[in-house]
């Protein structure tokens, strides 16, 4: 679907995760972009309300002023009315790169960012291609698979697990725990909750907390191993690291690992899956690409714009301020919606058209400024390699069943994507 | 006009070099270096573009 029905502002609630599961968010975004000022999104008895930021220039402004719009109050729009109701992950506010403000943010980021530069990323291309082909080998003879479970989730998972030095036997656990943490609102992942209680706010809280605690348990063990026996992986680098003359605490390192594994595998997974869906739904664009794969780098940018796999980031104002003349009070939360800004007609011509040769394409799918996605280079390379190998080996791949989307306001996820293609002999 | 790159922020994405190769060069250290002290009028639009596109927003004009 390219154009969605507009929704009246009074009816819009971007805290409703089923809106995203039904893939009806773009109609709401369209309405809000056209409306002057900012839209206040009411909370409920357990979550405070927030301002929705849906226009490109406004997201640029907020992103460029981390000294005013803080990440340390948490980066999703859910802020419990009762602080005792905090989910476990919220305890990491101020402790992870993604929830940390300058000046500490950049200092911590510099501990690892040499592993993510364009040069470092390029050096991994052969390995990424090899992993990709192993994954495709696994499904080639069947001629059908669940593209998410068998391919798109596995590639980024393998890359980040490899960088962190995790053993192969633990990768599946990382996949499951990532789903619990980032997919906590989706009944499919609420396996710690009795079936008849799934789909509730409480079930989401329990699922997220269980996933977080299990992740911490796993990394606490890994950290002990690394302290005894260092390697060249990211975790070993963190064990020895200092910021302003102080070694990172074990808690710092555990939150760092938690962030790396989540951000490293959930996001690119959905860009790959969403990219394949977009290409299948736009056969003329896909045919153009398959006839000339040199268009792929541009197509990757359009996929990123179109899918915008991270749906939002929120900030809390540290002082009374304004966004484009609109007053924001100290302590109020603002939520930036990336799929919306990436379809802002003041920046993108015919924004609802999927165009693999769109130029320029200055999308904000990775954010911009202080918190620009550290793994953007890997995401781009993984997307490039997977579509090169996929269309080389399975040129007639098609969707073969319902696209099942994640019930989440934070991650534009696809849980299941049945596909079929001519089997390799 | 003088332009500067915040080397703490720069992560070597190279958008600046693509926008204004006369002014910026990505070094072997994966950090962008400013090649000229005084950016002439004719290069300002290119530098403005580099400032706008920098993923880390690490580039800025230096106030005279």
Structural class of chain A: alpha+beta
Average residue-wise pLDDT of chain B: 95
Strand content of chain A: 5-15%
Mean pLDDT of chain A: 94
What's the CATH C level of chain B?
Alpha Beta
Task: Summarize the model shown.
The complex is a heterodimer of chains A (425) and B (64). Chain A has 425 residues and is an alpha+beta fold.
Walkthrough of the structure:
The complex is a heterodimer of chains A (425) and B (64). By secondary structure, chain A is an alpha+beta fold. In chain A, 44% of the residues lie in helices and 10% in strands. Chain A has one domain (9-420): Cytochrome p450, CATH 1.10.630.10. Chain A has helices at 17-21, 25-34, 56-64, 104-109, 118-122, 125-140, 147-152, 154-163, 171-182, 201-228, 234-239, 250-281, 283-291, 296-307, 338-341, 376-393, and strands at 39-41, 50-53, 69-70, 144-146, 242-243, 246-247, 312-317, 321-323, 326-328, 333-337, 398-399, 404-405, 414-416, 418-420. Chain A has a 5-stranded mixed β-sheet. In chain A, strands 4-14-11 form a 3-stranded antiparallel β-sheet. In chain A, strands 5-6 form a two-stranded antiparallel ribbon. Chain A is globular. In chain A, 46% of the residues are buried. The mean pLDDT of chain A is 94. Chain B has a single domain (2-62), classed as Alpha-Beta Plaits (2-Layer Sandwich). Helices cover 23% and strands 22% of the residues of chain B. Chain B has helices at residues 15-19, 44-53; strands at 2-5, 24-26, 32-34, 59-62. In chain B, 36% of the residues are buried. The chains are: A alpha+beta (425), B alpha+beta (64). The A-B interface holds A 63-64, 106, 110, 113-114, 116-119, 362, 366, 368-370, 372, 376-377 and B 8-9, 11-14, 30, 53, 55-57.
């Amino acid at each position: 679907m390219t154009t969605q029905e507009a929704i009246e502002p009074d009816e819009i609630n971007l805290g409703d995760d089923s809106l995203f599961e039904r893939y009806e968010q773009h109609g709401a975004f369209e309405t809000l972009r056209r409306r002057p000022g900012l839209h206040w999104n009411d909370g409920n008895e357990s979550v405070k309300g927030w301002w929705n930021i849906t226009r490109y220039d406004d997201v640029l402004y907020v992103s460029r002023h981390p000294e005013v719009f803080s990440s340390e109050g948490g980066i999703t729009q859910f802020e419990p009315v009762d602080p005792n109701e905090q989910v476990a992950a919220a305890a990491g506010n101020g402790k992870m790169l993604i929830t940390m403000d300058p000046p500490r943010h950049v200092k911590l980021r510099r501990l690892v960012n040499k592993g993510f530069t364009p040069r470092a990323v390029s050096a991994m291309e052969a390995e990424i291609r090899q992993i990709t082909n192993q994954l495709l080998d696994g499904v080639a003879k069947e001629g059908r698979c669940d593209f998410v479970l068998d391919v798109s989730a596995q590639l980024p998972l393998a890359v980040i697990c490899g960088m962190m030095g995790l053993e192969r036997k633990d990768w599946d656990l990382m996949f499951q725990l990532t789903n619990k943490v980032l997919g906590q609102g989706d009944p499919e992942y609420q396996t710690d909750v009795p079936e008849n209680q799934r789909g509730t706010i409480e079930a989401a809280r329990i699922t997220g907390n269980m996933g977080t605690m299990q992740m911490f348990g796993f990394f606490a063990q890994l950290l002990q191993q690394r302290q005894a026996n260092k390697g060249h992986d990211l975790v070993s680098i963190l064990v020895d690291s200092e910021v302003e003359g102080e070694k990172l605490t074990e808690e710092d390192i555990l939150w760092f690992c938690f962030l790396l594994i989540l951000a490293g595998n959930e996001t690119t997974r959905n860009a790959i899956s969403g990219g394949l869906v977009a290409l299948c739904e736009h056969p003329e664009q896909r045919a153009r690409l398959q006839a000339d794969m040199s268009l792929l780098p541009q197509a990757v940018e359009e996929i990123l714009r179109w899918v915008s796999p991270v749906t939002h980031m929120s900030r809390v104002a540290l002082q009374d301020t304004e966004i484009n003349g609109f007053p924001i009070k100290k302590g109020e939360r603002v939520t930036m919606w990336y799929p919306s800004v990436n379809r802002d007609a003041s920046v993108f011509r015919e924004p609802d058209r999927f165009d693999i040769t769109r130029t320029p394409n200055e999308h904000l799918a990775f954010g911009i400024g202080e918190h620009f996605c550290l793994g953007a280079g890997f995401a781009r390379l993984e997307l490039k390699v997977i579509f090169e190998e996929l269309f080389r080996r399975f040129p007639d791949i098609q969707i073969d069943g319902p696209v099942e989307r994640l019930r989440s306001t934070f991650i534009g996820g696809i849980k299941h994507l049945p596909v079929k293609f001519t089997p390799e002999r | 006009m003088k332009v500067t790159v915040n080397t703490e922020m720069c992560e070597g994405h190279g958008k600046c070099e693509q926008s204004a190769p006369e002014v910026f060069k990505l070094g072997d250290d994966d950090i962008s270096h400013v090649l000229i002290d005084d950016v002439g009028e004719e290069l300002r639009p290119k530098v403005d573009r580099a400032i706008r596109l920098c993923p880390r927003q690490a580039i800025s004009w230096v106030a005279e």
